[in-house]
Each structure stands twice: as structure tokens, then as C-alpha cells.
Amino acid sequence: MAKILIIDDEPEVCDNLCRLFDRLGWAAHRETDPAAVYPTVRGCKPDVVLLDVSMPGMDGFQVLSLIRGDPEVATTPVVMYSAVDDERTIDRALAAGADDYVVKGTPLSELRNRVSLFVPRHRPPGDKHGEGVDN
């Protein structure tokens, strides 16, 4: 089963996204406290991280830097997900190592499709039969 970690300081956003990915058959985990993100990433070892940019205390760029700096989780795909939609922020996120950037308000079907690109091919959303198969 594919695992996604949703990191957003807004619990309602996390809840809605968890429901979306749970319906796809993924194991959706959430973290609303940016200070607790790093141990959560290392602990759950997600297939993909969906990361908000604007959070209090530690923003998404700082979290991304921690992830990219740890050899144990550095290759985990990170999709930034934010209401901030200016070109400079998007370019900064991609330059900092984000694999993709999706603006909040994007249709959920597009978000799902974009995030799905980073899930290993042998574990597509909802596929329980492909687990453990190397393709």
C-alpha cells in the first residue's frame, strides 16, 4: 500500500486530504506541527510527502531542507502544496529540491494525478495486488 505524509498546519486541510488518499487505498498520514515533521518523516518513511509552504515556526522550505539533508529520506519525493502561487515561490521550491508544486485550489483529481506520479509503479493507488512486486 502506498504511503503519503501530508504536512500542513491546518488540521481541516490535512483531514480532507487524508480522506481523499484513503479513498484511493493509500495509507495517509498527517502532521500539523512543523516542529514534529522531521521525526514523522523518518518514522513513517512515506512514498511521497505533500508539504505546505506557509507554516508557523518552520516553513515548508525549512522542512524540505531537513528532508533533503538526511540520507535516510533524502530521495523521498516531495510535492509542495500551497496557496502561494507566485512564480518566484514556485521556482524557489523546485530549486530547493521539491519534485513538484501544486497550488491549493487545484482540482482534487489533478492533485491526485500529480502526486500519483511519484508513487512507485508497483504500488498504484488502490492496487492491493501489486505490493512487493518489482517492475
Question: Could you walk me through the main structural features you see in this protein, from its secondary elements to its overall organization?
Answer:
With 135 residues, the chain is of the alpha/beta class. The protein is 36% helix and 17% strand. The chain has a five-stranded parallel sheet, with helices on both faces. Strand 3 (48-51), helix 3 (60-69) and strand 4 form a beta-alpha-beta unit. The longest helix is centred in the first third of the chain and has 13 residues, at 11-23. Residues 122-135 have low confidence and may be disordered.
> What is the N-to-C succession of helices and strands?
EHEHEHEHEH
State the separation between the terminal residues, measured CA to CA: 15 Å
Helical residue percent? 25-40%
Q: Approximately how much beta-strand content do the residues carry? A: 15-25%
Mean pLDDT across residues: 87
Shape: globular
Q: Characterize the main sheet.
A: 5 strands, parallel
The helix-and-strand class reads alpha/beta
- Kindly provide the radius of gyration, computed on alpha-carbon positions and rounded to a whole number of angstroms: 14 Å
Strand tally, please?
5
Question: Any low-confidence stretches, pLDDT <50, length ≥5?
Answer: 122-135
**What's the arrangement of strands in the largest beta sheet?**
2-1-3-4-5
Query: Number of helical segments?
Result: 5
